[in-house]
Design a protein that fits this description.
ABC transporter involved in vitamin B12 uptake, BtuC, two-stranded antiparallel ribbon, LivM-like, cell membrane
Length: 324
Amino acid sequence: MQSFIDSKLAWGLLLAASLAFPWVAGNDYHLTVMSTAYIFAIATLGLNLITGYTGQLNLAHAGFMAVGAYTVGILTVDHGWSFWAAFPMAGVVNVVLGYGVGLLSLRLKGHFFAIFTLCVGYIMFLIIEKWEGLTHGTVGIMGIPAPEPIGAISFESPLALYYLTLGFLVLAVWAMRRIVKSLLGRTFIAIRNSDELAEALGINLMRNKTLAFMLSVFYAGMAGGLYAGFVRFIGPDLAGTHHTFDMMIFMIVGGLGTVLGPLLGAIGMPWLTQSLQFLQEYRFIVFGPILVALVIFLPHGIVGSFLAWRARRAAKEGRPHAQD
């Protein structure tokens, strides 16, 4: 029997809580914080696919998210495209770019791959900041149009944008669950566990790593495109490596190699920092020890540690256990 944490009932309760959130949020600011968290949760799911499931640490992930955002910004502001026409291009451009970067970088392993992608991310940041003719440089792109109405549904209000971002998050989670539970997902996990063993089983390492990388940056691109339509202003800071490290924290706290873990981390961590705002510049004195305690006492993240505990309990009782 599947555990509650991976059951349809659990996911249904999470969805119901998300749908009801606006009615208990109290103000538009809370809706904005949660909508932004949903967007970064989509990007974090993508990073988790290449890092948590395939075992490759991509430190250029925020750069790819920025590419998606700038694709929407440039096409809508400079070329007069509608948001809905430009939005899919955020994913397409990232997939093409990710294919090229993947072919170059995925020949490396371990920390060599991480360092290479860190350099790639910084190059992306420099291109965005310096190429004023294309990206508007340090000024950024302002006046990005909001998503156009779909029928009678308009996306001008924070409430409408909240449900729009929630809808895309639900779609992203559904697709990710289908991927990781498929034969392709099992292939990614086999590569993460051992390149040599996966190759011995007949798995084409380069092809599957590149595919995982392309799917990962596709998620980043769509998150970036959605971010551009939500915030309606983007600057080079979006490509900063600190955003990648934020997403890494979301994964580590929630649980690498699970779908629910990065989702909870991406939504819960911003609210933790928001709850400490009253401490002003001293909030990180509290936030830091909390983060360290989580890493020490829950080394596999919240969801990952629970799954590990459940596996040990199932082994003692001599019964099989389900994985997330």
